[in-house]
């Protein structure tokens, strides 16, 4: 069984995240969207709301589930028997950052990271940009799935 974890803070989930997950569905038997919890980080959206956004976005997709976790992603992979980590790449800076993490994860475990390039139409979107648009009263609705737009 090809089981992948798609980890992130998803504060909030964006159209870019949604695109990567949808394009990952044919590649894996199951995708677990894993919302990481970092006590040091200040989030705009509470954990349960972020989880609800994702569950609502993928409610009709039986191969996708959502969980929350703390700690190392590879420890979560081992705990739930996931063989892969799915990550999206928007630009060369993302690649360099993600490559280092992927090499470390492979060194510490046998878990492979699968990278998908973001679609050109969503490559500029990040959760931090969405939060900035939200804080300043901009039209964030163009950047997020419907579940976030109805918050």
Automatic annotation (TrEMBL):
Binding-site list for substrate: 9, 41, 73, 87
Known EC number: 2.7.7.3
Family matches, as CDD domains: PPAT
Cofactor(s) this protein cannot do without: Mg(2+)
This protein's pathway: Cofactor biosynthesis; coenzyme A biosynthesis; CoA from (R)-pantothenate: step 4/5
Root EC class: transferase
Localization per Swiss-Prot or TrEMBL: Cytoplasm
Subunit structure: Homohexamer.
NCBIfam families the UniProt entry points to: coaD_prev_kdtB, cyt_tran_rel
Name of the protein this chain belongs to: Phosphopantetheine adenylyltransferase
Record organism: Flavobacterium commune
Taxonomy of the source species: Bacteria, Pseudomonadati, Bacteroidota, Flavobacteriia, Flavobacteriales
Gene: coaD
């Amino acid at each position: 069984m090809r089981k992948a974890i798609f980890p992130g803070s998803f504060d909030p989930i964006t159209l870019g995240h949604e695109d990567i997950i949808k394009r990952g569905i044919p590649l894996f038997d199951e995708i677990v969207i894993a919302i990481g919890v970092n006590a040091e980080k200040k989030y705009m959206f509470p954990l349960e709301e972020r989880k609800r956004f994702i569950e609502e976005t993928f409610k009709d997709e039986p191969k996708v589930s959502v969980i929350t976790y703390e700690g190392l992603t590879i420890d979560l992979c081992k705990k739930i028997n996931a063989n892969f980590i799915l990550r999206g790449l928007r630009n060369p800076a993302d690649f360099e950052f993600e490559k280092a993490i992927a090499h470390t994860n492979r060194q510490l475990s046998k878990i492979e990271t699968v990278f998908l390039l973001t679609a050109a139409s969503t490559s500029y979107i990040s959760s931090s940009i969405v939060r900035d648009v939200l804080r300043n009263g901009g039209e964030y609705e163009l950047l997020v799935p419907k579940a976030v737009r109805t918050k």
